[in-house]
Design a protein that fits this description.
Strand content: 5-15%
Largest sheet: 7 strands, mixed
Structural class: alpha+beta
Helix content: 40-55%
Length: 441
């Protein structure tokens, strides 16, 4: 098998080989190349020690010198080059207590997580596949290199990574690897929230976000997202639904594009249903006010997982307003935009359609027709550039001050009162009319 190496990667490998060392592209870049994909970055492994690398290349950065990694800078790009190594014991479930440099490529590849990530390549030797990575790609399976429990003992995050790779590639998880995950899932408690978040987002925006189901079945979400486990165990016996809460969530995620905010919005949109569940005498379930409970739970979870404030604010708004009753009138839509926010409001249509698609057929056409009509009204409001927020008013606080109003809280209250009138009747949004209304107020 021939892989086309980027010129700079070829030059780094060639420089190391000319100096008498072995060097290969390794890991994800080789996997992606085999799959016909363009790698995001290229990692290189070599028999050269860090100090030997630094003598060969004029510009380097000591990225992880303790673990043998040097970043070689070529033409403004950085390439991580790491010495063959054998990892010592992993006392914290994340980092080896020590590493030993080795001259053996086989030993270096043996410490890697999954067979599909344990292949190396250079133009002299071609593809080096010592642990069956190519066969596992052909069979579409995620399998640990060597003993699965040892690999997960070394770094517990690999358990979540197994599901993430499975979701990204559409592969199944090897049975032995899966059994090891079930046994060792509690070790994920040792992993930082930041690392959990990164893997969770990659899973959620993958082509198969519903593979989160596998994380539930393997016991992973019980450790990192127990709120989702409650959803998987909460029934929905109602004419509007055909799935339990968790399955409804998984199906709804498939209904939106792989955008982080949208996918997370669908993941959390019904997260408040277990806490708001009520059951009628005939067994019919209800979840009244679940968006309000869901907004609180979502914010708590996203803070726990160290999401940035902007993402958290957007996702929690989608959760809070995903089921908001928008009156199908122009005034109703203007008021909804004002309440939900101009940035988030357009996403509501995508969220609603995905939500409806993951429900039963009951009144589906009527629900979708209402969404389409509200969206039509919204587009017309946008085209006419009608006021929906205070910044859209034809007057400002300075105009009120010029009319003799003292600066302070009263200005904001007056502008809000005027906006209420304009939301009902956009024709009032002229400076002359608004000043007249102000005097009447």
């Amino acid at each position: 098998m021939q892989i086309r190496l980027p010129k700079k990667v070829h030059n780094i490998i060639n420089t190391l080989e000319e100096a008498g060392y072995e060097a290969y592209a390794v890991g994800g870049c080789v996997r992606d190349s085999v799959l016909g994909r363009t790698p995001d970055d290229w990692d290189i492994t070599t028999s050269a020690k860090p100090d030997e690398m630094k003598r060969l290349f004029p510009r380097t950065v000591d990225t992880g010198i303790k673990h043998g990694t040097v970043t070689v800078l070529l033409g403004g790009e950085g390439f991580e080059v790491t010495t063959y190594r054998i990892d010592g014991t992993y006392e914290d479930g994340r980092h080896p207590s020590e590493v030993t440099f080795t001259a053996s490529l086989k030993e270096d590849l043996r410490r890697r997580d999954f067979t599909i990530n344990a292949m190396a390549y250079n133009e002299r030797d071609g593809l080096v596949d010592l642990y069956g990575g190519l066969a596992d790609i052909e069979n579409q399976v995620i399998r640990c290199v060597g003993n699965a429990e040892e690999r997960f003992d070394e770094d517990a995050l690999r358990m979540l990574r197994a599901v993430r790779f499975s979701a990204q590639l559409g592969y199944r998880i090897d049975e032995t690897t899966g059994e090891a995950i079930k046994a060792l899932a509690p070790n994920l408690q040792k992993i930082s929230a930041e690392r959990i978040q990164v893997e969770l987002v990659k899973l959620v925006v993958s082509p198969h976000p519903d593979y989160l189901r596998n994380a539930y079945e393997l016991g992973i979400t019980a450790q990192v997202l127990p709120e989702f486990d409650l959803c998987m165990e909460t029934p929905q016996r109602h004419k509007h639904h055909c799935y339990d809460v968790g399955e409804h969530i998984l199906h709804s995620m498939l209904g939106v594009e792989p955008d982080k905010v949208l996918r997370l919005g669908m993941l959390f949109h019904d997260i408040g249903k277990p806490q708001t569940l009520t059951v009628d005498p005939d067994g019919t379930t209800h979840n009244k006010r679940h968006p309000f409970e869901g907004e609180k739970i979502t914010r708590k979870v996203m803070r726990r997982l160290k999401f940035d404030n902007d993402t958290t604010d957007k996702v929690t708004k989608l959760v809070l307003y995903h089921d908001y009753d928008i009156a199908p009138t122009e005034a109703g839509v203007r008021r909804a935009v004002n309440r939900i926010g101009e940035e988030i409001f357009p996403m509501i249509f995508t969220v609603r359609r995905a939500d409806i698609a993951a429900q039963s057929d009951y009144m589906r056409e009527e629900k979708l027709a209402k969404v389409a009509y509200i969206e039509k009204l919204y587009r017309e409001i946008l085209s006419r550039k009608e006021a929906v927020t205070l910044k859209d008013l034809a007057i400002s606080g300075n105009d009120l001050i010029a009319e003799g109003m003292p600066s302070g809280r009263q200005i904001g209250e007056t502008l809000s009162a005027l906006l209420e009138r304009v939301l009902d009747d956009p024709s009032l949004n002229t400076k002359e009319i608004l000043l007249k209304l102000y005097k009447e107020l």
